[in-house]
Amino acid sequence: MKSTTRVSSRLNLAGRLGVFGMAALALAALAGCGASQARPKVRSSVQPDPTSRQTLSYYQAQLAELPLRLKSYDLAGVRSASPVVIRELHVIHDDVRPEILVIDYDKKAHHMWSIDPINFTLHWKTPIDKRVAFNPLATRNYVVLMDSDGTYQAFDRQSGPRDEFSRLVAKGRYEGDIFPSAHPAANDSHVFVPATNSNSLRGISLASNARGVGSDTWGFPGAGTSQARRFEQISLPPACDRESVVFVNNNNLLYMVDAQSGEYRASPDLERNSRTPPLIHEDIVFCGSDRGQMFAFLKSGEVAFTVPTPGLPYGDIFVEDRWMFVRTLEVYDKEVPTDDGKGKRLRADTRPGLFCAYQYKFIDVPGDRPVITVVDGDPSTPWIADPIWTEPDVGQRVLMKNGDHLYILYEESEEAFGARELSKLKAEGRIVKKEEERRVISRTMKIVDTKTGKLVRPDWIFNMADFAFIKGSMQEYDRALYLGTLDGYVFRCFASGSGNAGGR
To answer: 363-415 pLDDT, tens per residue?
Structure first.
């Protein structure tokens, strides 16, 4: 039998209390959270802006039980009674430097902050014109904010004034009036934009200037090439590193091209539609297919391994330390009215299925390169490689793996706005990202054993209602959680070296 995460009746009660926002009961024992600091409802970025702020110790007390070390940064400063409101929090890891990018709303204007995540010092702060639909794109010299209509703002990343003064170096549209069809990606030299109006991937070089002007800017596929004949739109975000950019096309091919030149390398056939943005990890490309399979490819396009999934893989893939985590959809027959409205018929549909944990390993081959194989979670069925463990898919997201500890975030959300209110909030710039259109009604984090999916300790279920922004780091040198509050605090909860940060 496949193992699943099971929680005792006491913890199930704690989970239900979290769902209904009764976080004060679950955390009543925390020091520093007296009656005057009763826990509020679940925080989200579209709530009314706070007019006052909690003390730093209020949040520190909530994070004290994590088996991690803690650092904090106060955007407003310790003497300020008025909060600097955080609208977005992002974490960048690349060949240039790690940094936290925070977008705020302060004194009726938006700013972007760059903060060093290791020593929590300020790199710089700059005003921005507006918030945009896509996350910041960091290259070696610039941070680019691109909107869904293709307009961009580019800011000096490394030089220039440190605080308050504008770091804006270019804005407008890139050549060709690009309209993105999916979230762009970036490495240290290029921004990669799936373009709707030309059904192509544009590699915009920012090596020498922020306007993308130069001979190193390219488009794929080239006109008249064999790839162009069957190329369609790109609907999923691409993935990239310094050498390669990979992306799924609507023709069911996974393209791999040279990131610097746009030169074609390979296009393995997924045979069906994909619902998972590709992921590059340690020179292996991971991607799912509606065949009910997860693929791992070498950058040459050669298959490293395939593994069947109990449903259709979808959403973001998390890979770390030779573990792969993916959510799946169950295909079922849904009863719907017939065309004439007089009867019922069955139609294939999907619903959330399972969250699956897979493990793979490298096997040395004398005189040849290692072979990658998937560890079978159920040896009693040798004809199929089963997950090591599963649990019901409830939209959970892996934040971090550290040793045998897996940090998983569970959020429940609901539609928050009617059509008229939503239109108004978009016009005001309060809602610019798709995920902001829903209201989070519960936010819980569990620390489970990577090998079993079971809670490491019975009390390692944490109500995270106060932390509107939670990001995880997948970097070997930075196993950490980054958290932000609406009233201007940023936290880094990090492991000390390898292992489980003391294993409390």
So the answer is: 999 988 889 999 999 999 988 999 999 999 999 999 999 999 999 999 999 98
pLDDT of residue 497: 58
Residue 407 lies inside a defined structural domain of this protein: no
Helical (H) or strand (E) element with 325: strand 323-337
- pLDDT for the residue numbered 44: 75
Q: CB neighbours (10 Å) of residue 12?
A: 12
Q: What is the pTM of this model?
A: 0.88
Instruction: Answer yes or no: is 500 within a domain.
Output: yes
Mean pLDDT for all residues in the chain: 88
Whether residue 136 lies inside any domain: the answer is no
d(CA 56, CA 40): 16
Contact present, 278 and 239 (Cβ < 8 Å): yes
Max intra-chain CA distance, the chain: 70
The strand order across the sheet containing 239-240 reads 239-240, 244-248, 254-258, 264-266
Enter the tokens of residue 19.
């769902």
Structural contact between residues 71 and 491, judged by C-beta atoms closer than 8 angstroms:
yes
Mean predicted confidence (pLDDT) in 157-179:
86
Are 26 and 411 a contacting pair, CB within 8 Å? no
d(CA 393, CA 408): 12
Over the range 217-228, which residues count as b (16 or more CB within 10 Å of their CB) and which as e? Answer: bbbbbeeeeebe
Please give the tally of structural domains in the chain.
1
Gap between the Cα atoms of 144 and 227, Å rounded: 29
405-417 pLDDT per residue, tens: 999 999 999 988 8
Tokens of 406: 């897996």
b/e map 123-141, b = 16+ CB within 10 Å = bbbbebeebbebbbbbbbb
Report which residue type is found at 315. Answer: G
Which residues are 115's β-sheet partners?
A: 100, 122
CA gap 452, 41 in Å, rounded: 32
Q: Quick check: is 227 in a domain?
A: no
Spatial distance between the Cα atoms of 57 and 30, rounded to a whole number of angstroms = 11
* Helix/strand/coil for 345: strand
What is the domain extent for residue 466?
A: 10-83+418-504
pLDDT per residue as tens digits for the range 109-151: 999 999 999 889 999 999 999 999 999 999 999 999 999 999 9
